[in-house]
Write a structure and sequence with these properties.
It is built from 9 helices and 11 strands. It is of the alpha/beta class and about 220 residues long. It has 2 domains: about 120 residues, D-Maltodextrin-Binding Protein, domain 2, CATH 3.40.190.10; about 90 residues, Periplasmic binding protein-like II (D-Maltodextrin-Binding Protein, domain 2, 3-Layer(aba) Sandwich), CATH 3.40.190. The strands form 2 sheets. A 6-stranded mixed beta sheet has the order 2-3-1-4-11-5. A 5-stranded mixed beta sheet has the order 8-7-9-6-10. It binds adenosine-5'-triphosphate and magnesium ion (MG). Adenosine-5'-triphosphate binds next to helix 1 and helix 3.
Length: about 220
């Protein structure tokens, strides 16, 4: 049995066409059913639905053989010192966006940087943010949030946020502006290293098929 870990929403939807190209059709719809283990038209392949930030954990411990995770999630786990036992063979080119620092329109970020001011930054990506500001030599107080980061500066919780931006529409709607890019983000295929050995033919065939589908 091959178990593929995906997260609901964007990653699931953008992985589906790749899976079809690989020759795997998921026969349950996670948006409509409450099932967390989804069948496919291959009796030896199943899909599990987990939180986006939990995908590397399932693959790392071998509960899933393979998974799709954002490079943001992988980078955050790595900055925390995790991700052992994971092989990352492929950039799938989906879930593309950028990790940005954003502030309210009225906040003079550039001046705060010049003055060496200590600022408060709210983010889900505390480790990535810590490394980013440390590299700039900036002193920041980091506040961990689990969602709706855009709200934090509007309500006085923080001066700035570190978040993912694609079109910028959410920032604009909340009168925020992106002031710094931390890096490009896309989704990666991740593979359990032990599964690559013990289930080599099946797992390697899947990696090759994904590689062909991406090209
Ligand atoms: P949860 O809902 O479980 O808290 P989440 O909010 O991080 O997780 P999503 O918003 O679906 O879940 O994000 C999952 C992944 O999709 C992210 O880790 C990132 O790699 C990618 N992603 C997030 N936002 C965007 C975006 N605006 N454009 C493109 N890809 C994105
Ligand atoms: Mg979400």
């Amino acid at each position: 049995m091959i178990t593929l870990a995906l997260s609901k929403g964007r990653i699931f939807e953008e992985t589906l066409p790749l899976l079809e190209a690989v020759g795997i059709r998921v026969t349950d719809d996670p948006e409509r059913s409450r099932k967390l283990i989804l069948a496919t038209d291959r009796h030896d392949t199943r899909v599990i639905i987990v939180r986006a930030s939990d995908v590397p954990t399932y693959v790392q411990y071998g509960a899933a053989d393979i998974g799709v995770a954002g490079s943001d999630v992988l980078q955050e786990a790595e900055a925390k010192g995790g991700n052992d036992g994971l092989y990352r063979p492929l950039d799938l080119g989906i879930g593309r966006c950028r990790m940005m620092v954003a502030v309210p329109d009225a906040f003079d970020y550039e001046s705060a940087v010049r003055r060496g001011a200590r600022i408060r930054v709210a983010t889900k990506y505390v480790s990535i943010a810590r490394e980013h500001f440390a590299a700039k030599g900036m002193h920041v107080d980091l506040i961990k949030l689990y969602g709706s980061m855009e709200l934090a500066p509007l309500i006085g919780l923080a001066d700035a946020i570190v978040d993912l931006v694609s079109t910028g529409a959410t920032l604009k709607a909340n009168r925020l502006r992106a002031v710094e890019e931390i890096g490009a983000v896309s989704s990666r295929l991740i593979v359990n290293q032990a599964a690559l050995k013990t289930k080599r033919p099946a797992v390697q065939a899947l990696i090759d098929a994904f590689a062909a589908a991406v090209r």
